[in-house]
Amino acid sequence: MQKEAPLYQQILAEISAAIEGGKLAPGAKLPSEARLAKRHKVSLITIRRVTRELQGRGLIHSIHGKGSFVARPSPAARAAASRNVAFLIDTLRGPYALTSIASVENALSAAGYNLLLKETRFDPAEHARVLRGLRGELAGVLIETWIDDWMEPARELSRLGVPAVLMSGRS
User: Fold this and answer.
1) 30-82 pLDDT, tens per residue?
2) Which one of 28, 57, 98, 110 counts the least CB within 10 Å of its CB?
3) 7-20 and 44-56 helices cross at what angle (nearest 10)?
4) Farthest-apart Cα atoms in the chain, separation
């Protein structure tokens, strides 16, 4: 016979699922601790434990005297939830590019990810523009480039906490 999870874990799972599933939108106010305790027929101590755990996970934040609110996901959290991987490539011309794209797309698809492809035409500024536009929407980035100035996009990705693979034709 399996034991049921403790009540605080059941309540925690219910509220977490509502937040992560979008039923409770960022900025939405949660019911008061007293109301949650009454609804779930538990003590305030139990609800406070749930609240602390939700805060620790970054799912809610509390404002003294105002209540608890669903947190807006950080860019790192949104990226972690994303199933999109950007592939920035200097040129789409030639058999090497097509082979690279097909290989990357097959690997990502098999792992349940989506490929976002962008030709950057050997332009470092285009790399930066694309990455700014996709900020917080990526699980990772692949950059295949022949240009020398690829370190700044790499630093930006690192600051955002987005995993990146840089492939250069230069040695």
Assistant:
1) 999 999 999 999 999 999 999 999 998 888 999 988 999 999 876 666 656 67
2) 110
3) 40
4) 67
Which residue shows structure tokens 């930006």? 156
Q: Judge contact between 45 and 29, C-beta under 8 A.
A: no
Contact 70, 31 (CB under 8 A): no
- Report the alpha-carbon distance of residue 137 to residue 139 in Å, rounded: 7
Bridge partners (DSSP) listed for residue 69: 29, 61
Cα 13 from Cα 8, distance rounded (Å)? 8
Long-range contacts of 53-56 (CB under 8 A, 24+ apart): 53/8, 53/12, 54/12, 54/15, 54/16, 54/19
What stretch of H or E contains 159?
helix 151-160
The predicted-structure confidence for 9-35, as pLDDT tens digits, reads as follows 999 999 998 988 889 989 999 999 999
**What is the structure's pLDDT at 81?**
63
Handedness of CA 16, 19, 20, 22 (dihedral sign): positive
DSSP code at position 128: H
In this structure, what are the phi and psi dihedrals at residue 159, rounded to the nearest 5 degrees? -60, -35
Provide the CB-side half-sphere exposure for 45 (13 A, CA). 0
Q: Which DSSP helix (H) or strand (E) runs through 118?
A: strand 114-119
Q: How far is CA 26 from CA 72, 81, 100, 160, in A?
A: 5, 15, 38, 20
